[in-house]
Specification:
Radius of gyration: 20 Å
Order of helices and strands: HHHHHHHHH
Shape: elongated
Largest sheet: none
Strand content: under 5%
Distance between the termini: 31 Å
Structural class: mainly alpha
């Protein structure tokens, strides 16, 4: 019988799995393969963009849930649960906001790839929601980690979670559509480039925040293979 993993181990395992969920794009590699395949690879690129956005969100929600339970357990063990109750409540509410957003905005990679194949101009809308979704994640994840920092410091774990080095800019979909039309599609290459690099930067900053939390909790880093994961324990609640 396998040993039941602690919430700390499960949080660590989610971090260890990010290499498979938080895919980083190389735009020039993508462009080269798109040209070589006469555009076919571009459809695969659409699939990967939507897939990484969705898988990243799933992983982050699981990490947030496990981390909440781990911090709650440490607070109770130290007899300081009431002292950090406000921060834990905030973490719970933020989790609920992100989970509700994901439930209402399901992004199916295969569906959006097929829509782009058969309805070419839908690519503009895909770029639109990828940008706006990342802005949403930037905002709420930053709030989550600000509260994590507050809770941990009061529990005696000195931590300074790094701020985002490159927040996702709010790109004007209307302007980008017009510029793509005026330039006969050339500007759409920059649009696709921006979506890829915005995601890359978002994931890099997320990784830095996660690693800072793990180090402060004495859990090390993502250096070994993740154990078999169970399902997240559900929304953190106080």
């Amino acid at each position: 019988m396998s040993q039941q993993l602690s919430y700390e181990q499960l949080a660590l395992a989610q971090v260890q799995s990010r290499e498979t969920t938080d895919y980083r794009f190389s735009f020039w590699s993508y462009l080269g393969w798109t040209i070589l395949t006469v555009g076919f690879y571009g459809h695969y690129g659409t699939f990967k963009l939507v897939e990484r956005r969705t898988e990243h969100a799933k992983r982050r929600l699981a990490f947030m849930s496990y981390l909440w339970h781990a911090l709650n357990a440490r607070a109770e063990a130290a007899g300081r649960r009431e002292e950090v109750a406000e921060g834990l409540d905030n973490l719970s509410r933020i989790y609920q906001q992100i989970e509700t957003f994901e439930r209402r905005n399901k992004r199916e990679p295969v569906l959006w790839m097929l829509l782009r194949i058969f309805i070419g101009f839908i690519g503009g809308y895909i770029n639109h929601f990828l940008n706006k979704d990342l802005i949403f994640f930037d905002t709420w994840e930053d709030s989550y980690f600000s509260n994590v920092e507050w809770v941990m410091q009061r529990l005696g774990y000195p931590v300074s979670i790094p701020k985002r080095t490159r927040p996702v800019p709010n790109r004007s979909t209307g302007l980008y559509v017009v510029l793509s039309i005026v330039t006969l599609g050339l500007f759409s290459l920059f649009w696709r480039y921006s979506v890829m690099t915005d995601g890359n930067a978002h994931f890099d900053d997320d990784a830095a925040a996660e690693d800072a939390v793990l180090r402060a909790m004495g859990l090390g880093g993502a250096t070994s293979s993740p154990p078999q994961l169970m399902q997240p324990p559900g929304p953190p609640t106080s």
